[in-house]
Design the sequence.
């Protein structure tokens, strides 16, 4: 389950996905290199969330191939898919915290699935505390999600995605619904996570401030294709009307 040295961490090759007559992805291709934050930018309904769900195997593509950490998603049985997913953190747009669980219990949930009883007995408490310290919320360990602000919920959800120390993190609209100050805080936190854990990330976003802060590279998903691939700075200066529309 390891990557070939110097090969992309994620490779999407000629991926197509349709829902009836709605052709969401059309021969879409991209590579994501080790240690980079790559942002997928596109209009609402352009297929960004479909793409990220295909990468983690939640949606099956109609054709094409996806390789993650050196493994083709198409060729994995359920056991190996579960092993691969344990190396991928997923930050849901809705946070997906369990309302009936404390913060501690929410963070322990991935450990219950992926660690043995002995591993949990020896290391769960330290893992939970480290993850919460990483997002500056150790003091919330015994609180319920209902007691947290929107920004705090986002941080706890990020802590949960970090607890298994994933090699890859997929962020689905990480700043949606947050005020501008909290949005910037979450964006800078994502950069610190990248630096501390040497993670590779795919970030779905239309928040230009978040994209400018977090991205090493931006892929423009337009008309179902990888329309452009460059840095935020270069794309923001483009004279192409389809690209320029996002930066006006």
Sequence:
């Amino acid at each position: 389950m390891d990557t070939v040295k110097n090969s992309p961490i994620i490779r999407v090759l000629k991926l197509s996905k349709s829902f009836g007559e709605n052709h969401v992805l059309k021969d879409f291709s991209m590579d994501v290199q080790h240690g980079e934050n790559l942002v997928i930018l596109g209009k609402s309904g352009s297929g960004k969330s479909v793409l990220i769900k295909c990468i983690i195997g939640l949606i099956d593509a109609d054709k094409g191939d996806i390789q993650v950490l050196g493994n083709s998603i198409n060729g994995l049985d359920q056991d190996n898919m579960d092993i691969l997913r344990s190396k991928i953190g997923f930050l849901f747009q809705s946070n997906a915290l369990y309302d009936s669980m404390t913060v501690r219990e929410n963070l322990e949930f991935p450990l219950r699935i992926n660690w043995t009883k002995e591993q949990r007995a020896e290391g769960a408490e330290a893992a939970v505390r480290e993850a919460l310290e990483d997002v500056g919320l150790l003091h919330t360990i015994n609180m319920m999600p209902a007691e947290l602000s929107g920004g705090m919920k986002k941080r706890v959800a990020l802590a949960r995605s970090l607890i298994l120390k994933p090699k890859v993190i997929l962020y689905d609209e990480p700043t949606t619904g947050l005020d501008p100050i909290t949005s910037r805080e979450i964006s800078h936190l994502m950069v610190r996570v990248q630096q501390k854990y040497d993670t590779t990330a795919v970030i779905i976003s239309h928040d230009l401030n978040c994209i400018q802060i977090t991205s090493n590279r931006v892929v423009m998903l337009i008309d179902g294709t990888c329309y452009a691939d460059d840095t935020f700075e270069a794309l923001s200066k483009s004279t192409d009307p389809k690209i320029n529309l996002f930066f006006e």
